[in-house]
Amino acid sequence: MSTFYGPDFEALTAQDPEIAAVLLSELKRQQTNLQLIASENFTSPAVLATMGSTLSNKYAEGYPGKRYYGGCEEVDKAESLAIERAKSLFGAEHANVQPHSGASANIAVYQAFTKPGDTILAMSLPHGGHLTHGSAVNFSGKWFNVESYGVRADNELIDYDELREKAVATKPKMICSGATAYPSLIDFEKIRAICDEVGAIMWVDAAHFIGLVAGKAIPSPVPYADVVSFTTHKVLRGPRGGMILAKAEHGAAIDKAVFPGIQGGPIMSAVAGKAVALAECATLGYQKYAKDVIVNAQALAASLEAEGMRAVSGGTQTHLALMDIRSTGVTGKVADERCGQAGIVMNKNSIPNDPEKPGITSGIRVGTPATTTQGMGVPEMKQIATLISRAIASDEPSVHAQIKTEVHALTARFPIYQA
Ligand SMILES: *Cc1c(COP(=O)(O)O)cnc(C)c1O
After folding, report:
1. Of all helices (H) and strands (E), which one includes residue 111?
2. Eight-class DSSP state of 314
3. Which is catalytic among the residues 32, 59, 162, 216?
4. Ligand 1, atom 14: closest residue by C-alpha
5. Is-catalytic flag, 390?
């Protein structure tokens, strides 16, 4: 049996064959399909092992050296390592490594800097923002007065003039930048100047791109922002979880907001996994990876354009591309389904000013973190673009079955999690 599952996989199989079968078929799904979801990656076996460790059993409410429970000497070492590695990797003054997820990290940011009813200014969801940036169905939209900015109609880049005008007019407590489907870089210097002009806290939700910052492939928001929240499982390639970096003056407020503000005990197995991932991110190998992710995303976007689709905002400077696929005559929803049948996993996505509803969309979002971890490069991105194009163009199950065979042949050349 593959060592990847750990020594207890046979025990799991004997005790709970139904769940053991899920683990096996999920591994096979990840190994054989093309994983183009921009927020997903393949974390290292070392991180996986740490997440599946006995650290999961430990209650450790509080912070290293200041816990509410006994027996925290060992987990204290793991959390202190994670904090030190985060501060050093990002040049941050303060780090909190306890948030259970990106959404939890964001709730803690609101808790630290705002009261219900305060005004915040964030990127609108249909232009790429996140649910936790003020969506009506999210706590953020219900508890805060949310003003939003978007992208310009002409170049689909953030409209900094609109951002500044809204900031001046509405005097927000916080200005949030960062998005889930924005392929370009964000001008943090400009946003800092606007925050200073109106006296707002500068909050960057770097969930999607922080891994590229860690790998020194794109500029960092850390020198500019009061607070930077993010997930650790996207390009960063760590365990599922969240993290917050802040200026020293906000450190106490952030720590109080995470615990006891919004969480109880941290998931110490994940905290230790974050330490392992942060050490991986500090290597030259990871820095090369981060650059390759962008090169691959640019190649994939250009190749999809060669297939007749249009890259929103003229291409990508990050790990993801948002493609306007109206020229194919097919909606994002149908494209997503057809690609899924062909073993290509990505998601439908609204494009700016999308004429279709969010459940249908005119676009697809493709990302390269996972395929780049597998070792794929520019030639494979070109091949993937033709596979996507062929899958979208047909509603024939036999065509999708044929593409799936080609997908399996491709992924077999770039194996992951081998024994
Ligand atoms: C992914 C993401 C989140 C949420 O992270 P979860 O771990 O899924 O809660 C928050 N903000 C942005 C911008 C994201 O991309």
Report:
1. helix 102-113
2. G
3. 59
4. 207
5. no
Which of 223, 232, 186 has the alpha carbon at shortest distance from 85?
232
Which one of 281, 312, 330 terminates a domain? Answer: 281
Q: Whose CA is nearest to atom 8 of ligand 1?
A: 102
CATH of the domain at 71: 3.40.640.10
Q: Is residue 133 part of a domain?
A: yes
Ligand 1 binding residues, C-beta < 6 A: 39, 101-103, 106, 130, 132, 178-180, 205, 207-208, 231, 242
The distance of Cα 140 from the centroid of its chain, to the nearest Å, equals 19
Is the pLDDT at 11 greater than 90? The verdict is no
Q: How many domains does the chain have?
A: 2
Strand order in the sheet with 227-231: 94-96, 242-246, 227-231, 201-205, 174-177, 119-123, 145-149
Report pLDDT digits (tens) over 296-307: 999 999 999 999
Tens digits of per-residue pLDDT, 83-119?
999 999 999 999 999 999 999 999 999 999 999 999 9
Active site residue 182: no
**Can you give the residue range of the structural domain that contains 361?**
284-412
Q: Are residues 276 and 301 in the same domain?
A: no
Residue 314 is part of a domain; what is its CATH number?
A: 3.90.1150.10
- The residue contributing the CA closest to ligand 1 atom 5 is 102
Verify that 166 and 194 share a domain, yes or no: yes
pLDDT at 274 over 90: yes
